[in-house]
Specification:
two-stranded antiparallel ribbon; mainly alpha; 4 strands; 334 residues
């Protein structure tokens, strides 16, 4: 590309980024509303809880900065943005936890919707594997969202803290298997015709795969769906170990199918939060744009950092956030 063409491209990028910032600021100003009704309650819920000396519009700007950093860390650490978003924003911002969980679902959903079509076209995300799991997980996510919105905030914080600490344990202990061996598929997976084939460039050939332990996996996806809807975390952290280690799905297919699953399960749970008035532009807009822009930067610097270092940063952030949520729910740390 010529120097003039490169300069022109950079100019358009600067214009696009400036336009995005202008839109974000405009929506934040327009949506500067502090009271929203949740679940038809007589008294509206406060978006910003407690006392703060800062004007309301400062918090969405800080949220954009924080989510931009989280977007970078999520890519480098190989985790979903939602699993970092809810505990960190819920623990360190004065937003009502209902609104944070609703925004967390949309943060996870935006990344899944962006990646899903491409993964399907490449044959990495499998529809026959996704559909039965998605039906169970999305139905459970609706129940989880309703439970999460009806529970007292201290109980939600305690359960959220315990869940985040459990995720840290899973990150420590869960092993990954690139090409697990399944000797004999179970009868349910055969009846549902859950098997597939994809091209593996590393091996230079096509890889055939099949699954087993399908009934147990379906039961676990009930639990995963409830937790995803209740806490707004997304469920990639749980989907991949179940698909890969329990069912025997190759790692690439497991990760891709998990990403596609989020576009279904998070959509159903997000509707519950939306219908209850717990999704507002003041939190959602800067969060999604911050995560997406951070992810773009994270992809570019992925090749120059050590993944192990970032992984330890992610584990440290999750541990600290999980402990804060737990202690906050117990009334020890306010």
């Amino acid at each position: 590309m010529s120097e003039a063409g490169s300069s022109s491209g950079s100019s358009w990028q600067r214009i696009l980024i400036t336009f995005i910032f202008a839109v974000v600021l405009s929506i934040i100003v327009i949506s500067g509303i502090s009271d929203y009704h949740v679940f038809g309650a007589e008294a509206p819920q406060k978006v910003i809880e407690g006392e703060t000396s800062l004007p309301f519009w400062v918090w969405p700007l800080l949220l954009f900065v924080v989510t931009f950093v989280l977007g970078i860390i999520a890519v480098l650490g190989g985790v979903g943005g939602g699993v970092l978003f809810v505990p960190i924003v819920g623990g360190f911002f004065p937003f009502n936890l209902d609104f944070v969980r609703g925004a967390g679902l949309l943060v996870a959903l935006s990344g899944a919707l962006a990646a899903g079509p491409g993964l399907l076209r490449r044959g990495l995300a499998d529809l026959r594997l996704s559909i039965p799991l998605a039906l169970i997980a999305s139905s459970s996510a609706i129940v989880g969202a309703m439970i999460g919105l009806s529970l007292p905030k201290n109980v939600v914080n305690i359960l959220l803290g315990l869940t985040i600490l459990a995720i840290v344990v899973i990150m420590f202990t869960a092993k990954k298997s690139e090409y697990p061996q399944v000797e004999k598929p179970d009868s349910l997976s055969q009846a549902l015709r859950i098997y597939g084939i994809y091209y593996e460039p590393a091996k230079g050939r096509e890889i055939e795969w099949k699954v087993h332990r399908t009934p147990l996996a379906l039961l676990l996806f009930v639990v995963i769906g409830v937790m995803a809807g209740m806490f707004g975390l997304g469920a990639g952290w749980a989907n991949v170990p179940v698909l890969n280690l329990l069912m025997g799905v190759p790692l690439k297919v497991a990760v891709s199918t998990s990403k596609f699953l989020l576009s279904i399960t998070d959509t159903t749970a997000a509707w519950i939060y939306l219908n209850s008035g717990a999704i507002i532009p003041m939190i959602v807009v800067p969060s999604i744009i911050g995560i997406m822009l951070g992810s773009i930067i994270g992809v570019r610097i992925l090749t120059v950092v050590k993944p192990k270092v970032i992984r330890w940063i992610v584990i440290g952030l999750l541990t600290f956030s999980g402990l804060r949520a737990l202690l906050k729910g117990l009334g020890i740390w306010t």
